[in-house]
Amino acid sequence: MAQEPPLTAAEKAKVAYFTARMCKRSLAGEDVDLSDLQRKVDRVLDGAAKRGAKTGK
User: Fold this and answer.
1) Pfam family example for this protein (predicted)?
2) Do residues 11 and 48 touch, judged by C-beta distance below 8 A?
3) Could you tell me the sign of the dihedral formed by the alpha carbons of 51, 37, 25, 29, in that order?
4) Which of 24, 25, 33, 36 is the most buried (most CB within 10 A)?
């Protein structure tokens, strides 16, 4: 499994917020689309990975 990049406090808060929204949506039913929130989480993680590669960590 790939090592996750270090997240800043703001990035951790964004991921937690999007995860909470995904949980809330999943309570509505199994057929609810979560792809938009998953893309937002992926975007935050990609930004952290780019920042980590840039700083050499």
Assistant:
1) DUF6257
2) yes
3) negative
4) 25
What token pair was written down for 5? 């990049």
The answer to whether residues 11 and 50 touch, using CB atoms and an 8 Å cutoff, is: no
Residue 30 one-letter amino acid: E
Residue 27: CB atoms within 10 A of its CB come to 7
Residues 42/18, Cβ–Cβ less than 8 Å: no
Q: How far apart are CA 29 and CA 53, in angstroms?
A: 39
- Tokens matching residue 30: 């199994």
17-56 residue pLDDT tens: 999 999 999 999 889 999 999 999 999 999 999 998 888 7
